[in-house]
Specification:
Blueprint: H1 3-11, E1 16-17, E2 27-34, E3 39-40, E4 46-47, E5 49-58, H2 61-75, E6 84-87, E7 92-96, E8 102-111
Parallel strand pairs: 1-2
Antiparallel strand pairs: 2-5, 3-4, 5-8, 6-8, 7-8
Length: 112
């Protein structure tokens, strides 16, 4: 299972992966980007860091913020057999889109 599938399952509900759809107005999307440098361990083991971004959008700014904050609260410190997650930024206001819907992001590092 890829990282975004795991994170979406942890968050539950409808979470879009890899894209922000034009509708619905209120939604949460996950994106993956280059993370930190690959870590090699003696004996051949590796830890693969993944950059993960949650982006919340809504016509109502407070709703969008609450969605991003809920994602941060759920994911920061998450740890399972194959993935641990740490929050790397606060919830950030990235402004409104072309339809005047407020967007917030929060970034994480996932390690596998």
């Amino acid at each position: 299972m890829n990282v975004l599938d795991v994170i979406a399952a942890v968050l539950g509900g409808t979470v879009y992966k890899g894209y922000l759809p034009p509708e619905p107005d209120t939604c949460l999307s996950l994106f993956e980007y280059g993370g930190e440098t690959l870590v090699n361990y003696f004996g051949g083991g590796q830890m693969i860091p993944h950059g993960i971004q949650a982006r919340a959008r809504s016509p109502d700014a407070q709703t969008a913020y609450n969605m991003a904050e809920a994602a941060a609260q759920t994911l920061n410190g998450y740890c399972a057999d194959d993935l641990s997650v740490s929050q790397t930024t606060p919830v950030l206001d990235i402004g409104r889109d072309d339809k005047q819907r407020q967007e917030y992001t929060v970034n994480f590092t996932g390690r596998r």
